[in-house]
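To fix ideas, we quote verbatim one protein's residues and fold tokens.
>
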Amino acid sequence: MHLSRPARLESNACLDSIRLCGRRRPIVTEMETNGRKHAARLSMAKDQGLLAVNPHIPAIVEVLSNAEIFFPGSQGAAIGELLNVRIAQAVAGEMKPQEALDAAVSDINNYLSSHPPA
């Protein structure tokens, strides 16, 4: 089998990608790069090491402890997801904002009519 020059280059690029993905390197998040870390659990919010690198943790805990679920009830997560998908489409420019909102209303109404509350 003989590969043309572009095909050989493409093949080499695939091999390089596979090699790169196969390396065992830790994944570094943007938060870690900038020296910020967050408490994954409320019990971690008093950890002095975390507080030293992220002094905003107490404010975050206060805000979250007073937060309410946007869409409470057994259907809340699904309603929120339906809305988030349409908002993301508007932000990405795939739909005009009003079209996205109208589609979200339709999606949510269709969902509610086929999934009555438990």
